[in-house]
Amino acid sequence: MTQVNDASSNLIARRRRLLGPSYELFYDRPVHLVRGEGVWLFDAEGERYLDAYNNVVSVGHCHPHVVAALARQAATLNTHTRYLDETILDYAERLLATAPPHLGHALFTCTGSEANDLAIRIARHATGGHGVIVTDCSYHGATIATAALSTSAGGLAVLGEFNAAVPRPNTFHDDGAGARQFLGALQAEVDRLCAGGKRPAALLLDSAFSSDGIFFPAAELIQGAGDIIHRAGGLLIADEVQSGFGRLGTGMWGFARYGLVPDLLTLGKPMGDGHPVAGVMARPELLEGFAAAEGYFNTFGGNPVSAAVGIAVLDVVQGESLVENARRVGDYLREEILTLKSRHACIVDVRGAGLYCGVELVGETLPAGSMARRVANAMRQRRVLVSNCGPGGTVLKIRPPLVFAREHVDQLVEALDAACTERA
Ligand code: PMP
What is the H or E stretch that residue 218 is in? Predict the structure, then answer.
């Protein structure tokens, strides 16, 4: 951290003192941000950064339409879901209209973790099963239940006897074998749990296999996975906390690319452009018994301000044709990075959909994960923000706001080119 200036050093020391050691900072030289606008972030010294990482601000930092909706509703009324109010109903109507008709009810939470947690509770109740099956480098949340299923973040150690993890459907390293292994392992885990009297309640899959390293396996593979869990009496939960709201450039929801319909859909991050809004869309029949037995209330989930923000985000995604933009600009991004791949031996795979791109990196002299971290740090020095993911962190994760344009791709690719050129 030799290049960190005094002001940043003071903030780092204050964080340690006040927040303790749990909070991680990005980059060897952390960024101290003070303002955001569209795809841009500005630091305390007035330097401008291209944000190619933050999917939460899906329609751009501080989008004026979203900010106005938030301010207007905050100045009018904020309560909770135990009073009559049109805003949450208008939002639910708009949201459900984007999903397949069988997902007929919406429930609101504040975080993606809570959304997954709630979906698991519903699945347990509806199926009589208990555990959940996930991939082996996934992230699904920070509650006790979802942390145990977040195998990329220590979950494997606390997975427990009812849950199971299967190899991620790796479409790269092994010429399709990893993807096929996924189905075999899933069937084996389902059989093992059932034989031990621990029938699973659900298969929980991130539609973009984000923390697993960003993979988009063949549709038949995910359909096969859905069949396996359904035959065992479990449900399919699509975690769209990262892949939802148009990011993949083919409609609003990532699961649609696999030609199947999940039983439960969990939402979060991009839903509120930075405001904490999340939720679950569910088949109505799944909620009947659950509501009678357990009920559901979330003090902040579905409050009128969050609902107004959610509506404003949908206005922008639909009004500014951001799904189409994600497809067009995302295709261009991958084309340009593929061109770099022909010149840089460190780039060994480029994959993705829409504005979600994973670039697998290896180093000549460095371990692979160190290479991806070095490239992300070098790009940060050029004021382009990306990060990395996957087991060992070998994959550069590019996931900008959906308002990203071709000129932003050009700037990103120039920074990536220069970062790959620097010798390890
Ligand atoms: N699911 C996925 C796929 C995620 O990426 C995340 C957050 N990284 C979550 C769930 C949890 O969301 P939150 O942090 O809003 O609780």
Answer: none
